[in-house]
Model the fold of this input.
Amino acid sequence: MLQVNPKMLPRLGETEKDLILLRKRAEEEQWLGEIECINLTLLFIRTKQAEPARLTRRTPVALGTPTVPSPNR
Done:
């Protein structure tokens, strides 16, 4: 799946706004296939925008400190 750099999240917002305007025009022009593709793309964008919030809610896992076995002499 596509990984989005957190620095690019504002750009996703701009793309979402542009797609909403394009969908409005597509509805006016009755471009049914185009509307379906735009809706799918908007779904993906909104999923990616929500992802960082979901990832920040994860609880850290304590892995402990690794130990090196002492050599048997």
User: Anything to note?
Assistant: The helical segments are 9-29, 32-56. The chain has a mean pLDDT of 83. Residues 32-56 form the longest helix (25 residues). The CA atoms of residues 26 and 63 lie 52 Å apart.
